[in-house]
């Protein structure tokens, strides 16, 4: 389950990047068009604000360019740049420029912006920017794993400010961020409440279709996690209406994946696959390098859960080129492991071994790459600082004394930075060595666990073969008893009855009475023989289905001292024969134990099917026992067989038993497992 959750979270990260990313070839062209629009403005304040928003755009692509436009905006403002409001503006956009590169510096700059903007409350836009900065500051806390602090910032800072200025869009967006955090923490009920409140705020707002579409999709996913399919359907219907108005939105494929998740949970696998196919086609039309592999991976998981392994393999192998072409090693690690696991399920152990080897190699690389990536990040920080310093020095090139002073300061800065880098490199080397040692220990533990799992699977396979052999032998003996010996005894009975009738016509004496006694005993023997044959392989199980067989069994086991009540719901008549026999034997063993050992007056048997699961429970009001002790004792062979049969059918057994309190056995069989 953890691995599945990790894979799901990994692909959610791909989705998050999609909403804000633009094709690389269009970034420069789009940025230049924004710059031309800013320069065309005559009002200095509006021009400065446009330049600051342009720096916000470039913050995702080039930090130095973003800082250059902030400097240019301050030059346009002149002396007004020293006002509290514009100081807050400048600090806010500088923080945004350093958001990815230097989170700690970004947090300090956001707090400087808060300090300046809180002192300029008279300006109408100050509070709106305070809402934005607190949302960004909280996002940095969330990246550090401080989810509770992030929610606290949203609920006690950003959202109250958005309420105070009646900005329903900012208010709704921050509520959605709270909802998504709650959903990641598996607090689905709270998340649902925030999603609905956010949707109410965004409804009817112009140019909010994209935001409402993403909100409806996330709310639908949350409802599916809650198993509230009715609410999920309502959110998805609203999302479908928005998709009809914006058919080429980059969020539409997200809607198709949410529909697929909904229909798969409702047991309609083919309909889920149809939605995934539609989403895949649209993602390809949008030329999205992130959405296409995500949807293909969703197809793989759907096929795998439906046990359509060949189609699952085909979908997963289509993900491979996208992962191979990326530098993110953890995605490769995940895909390699799933390919290996899929080949193992299909019985191709040679290919499974090859892919497990690739998985181990990439796992080693992930640990090594972590250290290398930190070094590259440090180098990138160094280069960015150097370029920013050159930009500032170029502006003051006509002031010789200031230039000389800045050069001296830069030289001291670089010497100090080099020393810090050297210390950090030594620290990274030490951490890398330690991580390699830990990795070795983890690999050894994984190998031991794999061997343990293999041994357990072999034991289950042996038990399966033994059970199948026992059932075949029971069936053969039952046929021989019923068709062979049963027929012979019936024939002998008929002949004796004919002889007795002839004798009675001639005379009646004591010898004739003894002959009738023998015929009655022979008749009882035939009935007992047939009862034994039916017990070994009941005909009602083979020809009338599970419900009829269990009902007959309960009636047969019932006698004056013990009353057995049977209830069934939703049982089909077309279960596979091995499943029928195993469930029948489990109930037979449990009833036998209850009748013989529990001293119970009442036994309840319930069996039903719902949502791909068969549920079975046997309860009695007898004297009870300690389950683990009974299994370990010699008399617990029957209970051990029950546990083995349940494990063989991919089921789960829960036992609630205690001396003096009766015993309850609850079993859940997953028919899709």
TrEMBL record:
Keywords: 4Fe-4S, ATP-binding, Coiled coil, Cytoplasm, Iron, Iron-sulfur, Kinase, Membrane, Metal-binding, Nucleotide-binding, Phosphoprotein, Signal, Transferase, Transmembrane, Transmembrane helix, Two-component regulatory system. It is an enzyme of class 2 (transferase). GO terms for molecular function: ATP binding. Residues 368-402 form a coiled coil. Its cofactor is [4Fe-4S] cluster. Residues 476-673 form the Histidine kinase domain. The chain crosses the membrane at residues 411-433. Residues 1-21 form the signal peptide. It is found in: Cytoplasm. InterPro entries: HATPase_C_sf (IPR036890), HATPase_dom (IPR003594), His_kinase_dom (IPR005467), Sensor_HK_TwoCompSys (IPR050482), Sig_transdc_His_kin-like_C (IPR004358), Sig_transdc_His_kin_sub3_dim/P (IPR011712), TPR-like_helical_dom_sf (IPR011990), TPR_rpt (IPR019734). Its EC number is 2.7.13.3. It catalyses: ATP + protein L-histidine = ADP + protein N-phospho-L-histidine. Gene3D superfamilies: 1.20.5.1930, Histidine kinase-like ATPase, C-terminal domain, Tetratricopeptide repeat domain. PANTHER family: NITRATE/NITRITE SENSOR PROTEIN NARX-RELATED, NITRATE_NITRITE SENSOR PROTEIN NARQ. Member of the two-component regulatory system NreB/NreC involved in the control of dissimilatory nitrate/nitrite reduction in response to oxygen. NreB functions as a direct oxygen sensor histidine kinase which is autophosphorylated, in the absence of oxygen, probably at the conserved histidine residue, and transfers its phosphate group probably to a conserved aspartate residue of NreC. NreB/NreC activates the expression of the nitrate (narGHJI) and nitrite (nir) reductase operons, as well as the putative nitrate transporter gene narT. This is Oxygen sensor histidine kinase NreB.
């Amino acid at each position: 389950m953890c691995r599945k959750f990790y894979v799901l979270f990994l692909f959610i990260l791909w989705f998050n990047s999609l909403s804000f990313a633009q094709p690389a070839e269009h970034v420069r062209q789009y940025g230049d068009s924004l710059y031309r629009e800013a320069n065309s403005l005559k009002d200095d304040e509006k021009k400065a604000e446009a330049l600051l928003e342009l720096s916000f755009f470039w913050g995702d692509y080039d930090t130095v360019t973003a800082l250059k436009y902030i400097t240019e905006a301050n030059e346009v403002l002149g002396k007004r740049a020293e006002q509290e409001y514009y100081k807050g503006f400048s600090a806010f956009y500088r923080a945004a420029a350093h958001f990815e590169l230097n989170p700690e510096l970004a947090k300090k700059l956001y707090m400087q912006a808060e300090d300046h903007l809180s002192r300029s409350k008279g300006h109408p836009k100050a509070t709106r920017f305070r809402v934005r900065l607190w949302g960004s500051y909280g996002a940095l806390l969330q990246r550090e794993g401080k989810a509770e602090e992030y929610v606290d910032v949203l609920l006690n800072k950003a959202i109250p400010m958005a309420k105070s200025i009646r900005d329903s869009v900012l208010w709704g967006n921050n509520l959605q961020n709270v909802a998504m955090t709650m959903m990641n923490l598996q607090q689905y009920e709270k998340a649902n409440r925030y999603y609905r409140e956010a949707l109410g705020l965004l409804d009817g707002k112009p140019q909010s279709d994209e935001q409402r579409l993403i909100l409806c999709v996330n709310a639908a996913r949350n409802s599916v996690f809650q198993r509230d399919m009715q609410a999920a359907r309502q959110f998805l219907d609203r999302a479908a209406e928005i998709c009809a108005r914006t058919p080429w939105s980059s969020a539409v494929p997200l809607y198709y994946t949410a529909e697929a998740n909904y229909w798969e949970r409702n047991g309609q696998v083919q309909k889920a696959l149809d939605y995934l196919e539609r989403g895949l086609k649209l993602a390809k039309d949008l030329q999205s390098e992130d959405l296409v592999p995500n949807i293909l991976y969703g197809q793989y998981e759907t096929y795998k859960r439906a046990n359509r392994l060949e189609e699952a393999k085909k979908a997963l192998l289509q993900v491979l080129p996208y992962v191979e072409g990326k530098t993110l090693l953890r995605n490769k690690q995940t895909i390699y492991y799933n390919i290996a696991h899929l080949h193992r399920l299909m019985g191709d152990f040679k290919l499974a071994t090859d892919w497990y080897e690739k998985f181990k190699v990439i796992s080693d690389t992930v640990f090594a790459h972590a250290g290398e990536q930190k070094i590259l990040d440090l180098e990138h920080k160094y280069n960015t600082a150097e370029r920013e310093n050159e930009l500032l020095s170029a502006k003051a090139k006509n002031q010789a004394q200031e230039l000389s002073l800045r050069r001296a300061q830069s030289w001291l800065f670089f010497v100090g930075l080099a020393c810090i880098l050297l210390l950090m490199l030594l620290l990274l080397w030490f951490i890398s060595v330690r991580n390699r040692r830990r990795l070795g220990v983890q690999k050894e533990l994984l190998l031991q666990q794999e061997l343990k799992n293999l041994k357990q699977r072999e034991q289950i396979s042996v038990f399966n073969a033994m059970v199948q052999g026992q059932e075949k032998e029971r069936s053969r003996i039952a046929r021989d008893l019923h068709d062979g010996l049963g027929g012979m005894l019936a024939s002998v009975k008929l002949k004796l009855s004919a002889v007795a009738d002839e004798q009675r016509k001639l005379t009646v004496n004591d010898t004739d009475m003894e002959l009738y006694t023998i015929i009655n005993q022979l008749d009882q023997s035939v009935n007992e023989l047939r009862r034994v044959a039916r017990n070994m392989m009941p005909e009602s199980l083979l020809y009338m289905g599970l419900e009829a067989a269990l009902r007959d069994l309960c009636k047969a086991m019932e006698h004056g001292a013990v009353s057995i009540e049977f209830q069934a719901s939703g049982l089909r008549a077309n279960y596979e024969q091995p499943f029928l026999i195993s469930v029948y034997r489990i109930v037979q063993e449990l009833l036998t134990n209850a009748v013989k050992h529990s001293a119970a007056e009442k036994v309840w048997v319930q069996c039903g099917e719902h949502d791909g699961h068969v549920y079975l429970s046997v309860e009695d009001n007898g004297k009870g026992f300690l389950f683990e002790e009974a299994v370990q004792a010699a008399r617990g062979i029957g209970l051990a067989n029950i546990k083995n049969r349940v494990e063989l059918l991919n089921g789960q057994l829960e036992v609630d038993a205690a001396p003096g309190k009766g015993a309850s056995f609850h079993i859940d069989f997953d028919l899709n497992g």
